[in-house]
Write a structure and sequence with these properties.
The protein has 345 residues and is of the alpha/beta class. 38% of the residues lie in helices and 20% in strands. It folds into 2 domains: 156 residues, Nucleotidyltransferase, domain 5 (2-Layer Sandwich), CATH 3.30.420; 174 residues, Nucleotidyltransferase, domain 5 (2-Layer Sandwich), CATH 3.30.420.
Length: 345
């Protein structure tokens, strides 16, 4: 939770949430329009009551029963009932890690959840009685960063979530871009290397195989196996075992000044920046926001990305140059974006 939101909650008067909201509203102001945002991940489902300014008033979490569609829906229903207990909410937005149809109703396919042609909107509306919108999770996060976060000052932006994979969300001319069939924005599956590393999508050489947390871990472990003396810092963090090296260890070692770990992040940043140059040639956004777990590396990742982007940008020196910014809303972006999209339906 951001410091601003935490301060807003911790500084509220005592009493129920409804009483606190009433106590902090100027006399005569209408009550806030509240919606619930739900972010369904492979292991955790997080939800929150969100106001029209993107502030999370209350949140809750559950384990995701990933192998059972009915149990996932029941978990979402439990979260909604818990959160609406002392709040007047008008709608629900659900961010799902998968392909969502153009009507924002059905999850066509989710790689880490047992959703196949799942009529999620109808099921949740039946369970809760509340109007519901279903959106791809990266799209929801992009919308949050566009409305309330790092790209609030532009009309054209791309969010890249550099985590286990490489997710993407596009806002063009102030509108969330979904494509003709609702599944646009899957930029992580642009082909970067012909016949390259096998991707989880079944193709080879996808961008996310070179610009993601999984790629960082793969390269770090291979480096530690082939050059143990040079990887001593990483191996120490991993208890001496290359197969236990994880992305946060690389970030920590790099922040502590370990040269090889910095080179690993620089290489990842290069792949990221070169891909951003390709996106700029097609979409010409004003800002690219980088989020996801690997973005915790900050400028150790983003500065190499900016340099690689500048080297690869078509017509460089003769055109305006986009900004590459770090995301502001962190893990809350999916909740905030889904809730705001539900409000605007």
């Amino acid at each position: 939770m951001s410091d601003m939101r935490r301060a807003a909650q911790e500084g509220s008067p005592a009493g129920t949430s409804v009483e606190r909201e009433a106590a902090t509203r100027p006399p005569g102001d209408p009550p806030p329009r509240l919606t619930i945002g739900v972010d369904v991940g492979g292991t955790k489902t997080a939800a929150g009551v969100v106001d029209e300014h993107g502030a999370i008033i209350r949140d809750a979490r559950r384990e995701t029963p990933a192998t059972s569609p009915s149990e996932i829906i029941a978990a979402i229903g439990d979260l909604v009932e818990e959160l609406r207990g002392d709040h007047e909410v008008e709608a629900i937005g659900v961010g799902a890690a998968g392909f969502v149809d153009a009507k924002r109703s059905t999850v066509l396919f989710a790689p880490n959840l047992a959703w196949r042609e799942e009529p999620l909107r109808a099921e949740i509306e039946k369970l809760t009685g509340l109007s519901t919108v279903v959106e791809n999770d990266a799209n929801a996060a992009a919308w949050a960063e566009f409305q309330f976060g790092a790209a609030h000052d532009v009309d054209d932006m791309i969010l890249l979530t550099v985590g286990t994979g490489l997710g993407g969300g596009l806002v063009l001319a102030g509108e969330l871009y979904r494509g003709a069939f609702g599944v646009g924005g899957e930029v992580g599956h642009l082909r970067a290397v012909p016949n390259g590393h096998l991707c989880g999508c079944g193709n080879k050489g996808c961008w996310e195989q070179y610009a993601s947390g999984s790629a960082l871990v793969r390269e770090a472990r291979e480096f530690a196996r082939s050059s143990p003396p040079q990887a001593s810092c990483l191996l120490e963090l991993a208890g001496g075992r290359a197969d236990r090296i994880e992305g946060p260890m690389v970030t920590k070692a790099a922040a502590d000044g370990d040269g090889p770990s910095r080179e690993l992040l620089e290489d990842l940043g290069r792949w990221l920046g070169e891909g951003i140059a390709t996106l700029a040639a097609v979409l010409d956004p004003a800002v690219v926001v980088v989020g996801g777990g690997v973005s915790e590396a900050g400028d150790l990742l983003l500065d190499p990305a900016r340099k690689a982007f500048a080297r690869q940008l078509t017509a460089r020196g003769h055109r305006p140059v986009l900004e590459i910014r770090r995301a502001m809303l962190g893990n809350e972006a999916g909740i905030i974006g889904a809730a705001d999209l539900a409000r605007r339906r």
